Amino acid sequence: MTDIVNKKSMSTSYKLVFIFAIFMIFFTLILGGATKSKSSGVGVLFWGYTAWLMFKHKSEELVHFYKAMFIFDVICAVVASSIFVIYGNDLSSSVGNDLSTLSIIFAITISLVYFLFRYFINQHLFPNNSHSTNFLGFRKVDDKFWELALHEVDSENRNEADWAKAYSKSSGDESKAKSLYIKLRANKLSRNSSFSENISSIKEENKISLSINLILYKRIWISTLLFLGFILIYDISGFTRKSLVNLSKNNSQALVVANEIGGVKLGDVMRDFLFNNAGYIRINSDKSDTYDYFNDVERVLVSFESNKVKSIFYRCKDEYDLSSYNGIGCGDDAQSILKMYKNDVRILCSKNAETKYTKRVYDAIKYGLRYALTNNKVTGFIVAEPEVLSTFVGFNYEACD
User: Fold this and answer.
1) Residues 6+ apart with CB under 8 A from 160
2) How would DSSP label each residue in 215-254?
3) Is 377 left (phi over 0), alpha (psi -120 to 50) or beta?
4) From CA 377, how far away is CA 358, in angstroms rounded?
5) What is the Cα–Cα distance from 181 to 185, expressed in whole angstroms?
6) Could you tell me which of 138, 266, 135 has the C-alpha nearest to residue 191?
7) Three-state DSSP string of 50-119
8) Furthest CA-CA distance within the chain
9) Looking at residues 114-142, what average pLDDT do you find?
10) What residues form DSSP beta bridges with 327?
11) Handedness of CA 45, 51, 57, 61 (dihedral sign)
12) Confidence bin at 221 (pLDDT 50/70/90)
């Protein structure tokens, strides 16, 4: 009868984890309803399954389940972070999270799963430690341990360390010290006995396997956190591919109609442009109403007509420049452009005899965006109104033969 009661009882820590799983079910439901997220059902299933296994005291199933979830989360974190590093903010506009936020979410999720995984391994190794307690969380001690402690307190075999603890907590009252010693010693003997019984009841190969799991997955957890920390620093430092379009508006579409580069927008009045942007030097123009301003540090050329920004040109720094526009970045090839815009581009070749076969431009006129390529690599971007961009033919570039 005692075994049946113990099997269904829960320790204080076990109860807290169980209550946490129940809480997460409702929290996920409420959060999913508030955000209208379709993925909230996965969270409900995850925590619901955890709570059910805990209720049934399926310790081995919990270990296998959380082991699989831990591996799955680590793989997702590494793959997703790597994809974000490659595609940068252009992908952020589609999924609604930037790389830093994603790294933090993965770090919290993986850590939570890892600690629960460790907890359930301990529960599986030492089941008596979690089930031999009453509803208040106090350990049920067998009568034989009380008897052993009673005989010890006045004998030469008294444990001096436990006696010192009991004596100090009793303020020097010897009768109270003896009473406290018996309680401390009985519980300690019971714990030691439970430990020995649990260890001996588990097959040697299983003990070795679980011990290896604890060490291996701890290293994987630490390595993953270090990786995500590096990704976080990498993103904050600005090394990820940055979109030349301002994504603060959180566009939900991957492709946008180009109207700016680096904060400079088409139609900006010259005086406002000069007031808001430092480092630009005017380049002489033959026409009285046309001016060009160039920033060598930012590698941006801004052309004005009738005192307003007409076009903006960005020149890629080198092959390590991670700037992009509409998912096409510095160093990408012509095939990437054709694929992105589904062949809806105008292709022009250089008129210069020396660069006729090495330079081309690919115009996504519908989006007001021109990609300049040299030797089949993107080397720059030009932004202009679609009707203006459509006239950019015949001066430096012409239809390819």
Assistant:
1) none
2) HHHHHHHHHHHHHHHHHHHHHHTT-S--BSS-GGG--SSS
3) beta
4) 10
5) 6
6) 138
7) HHHHHHCCCHHHHHHHHHHHHHHHHHHHHHHHHHHHHHCHHHHHHHCCCHHHHHHHHHHHHHHHHHHHHH
8) 109
9) 64
10) none
11) positive
12) very high
Tokens of residue 342, six digits? 């589904």
Q: Which residue has the tokens 């409420």?
A: 30
* pLDDT recorded at residue 321: 75
**Which of 28-37, 99-108, 356-365 has the weakest average pLDDT?**
28-37
**C-alpha to C-alpha distance for 285 and 287, rounded to whole angstroms:** 5
Write the single-letter amino acid at 286: D
Query: Residue 350 pairs with which residues in a beta bridge?
Result: 397
> Residue 111 has what pLDDT?
95
Cα separation, 332 vs 372, whole angstroms: 11
Q: What is the pTM of this model?
A: 0.48
Comparing CA positions, the residue from 337, 399, 393, 391 lying closest to residue 362 is 337
The secondary structure element, H or E, covering residue 196 is helix 174-201
Element (H, E) at 309: strand 308-315
- For the segment 267-282, the average pLDDT, to the nearest whole number, is 90
Token pair belonging to 215: 């060490």
Q: Write down the residue that tokens 């984890």 correspond to.
A: 17
Based on C-alpha coordinates, what's the Rg of the chain? 34
Q: Which two tokens stand for residue 204?
A: 């040697």
Residue 299 three-state SS: coil
- Give the whole-angstrom CA distance, residue 311 versus residue 305: 9
CB neighbour list of residue 189: distance below 8 Å, 6 or more residues apart: 145, 148, 149
Q: How far is residue 13's CA from residue 54's CA, in Å, rounded to a whole number?
A: 12
Supply angle C-alpha 250, 256, 257, rounded to 5.
Answer: 130
Give the N- to C-terminal CA distance of the chain in Å, as an integer: 93
Q: Position of tokens 């996504």?
A: 364
Q: Please, which residues have CB within 8 angstroms of residue 268's CB and are 6 or more apart in sequence?
A: 308, 309
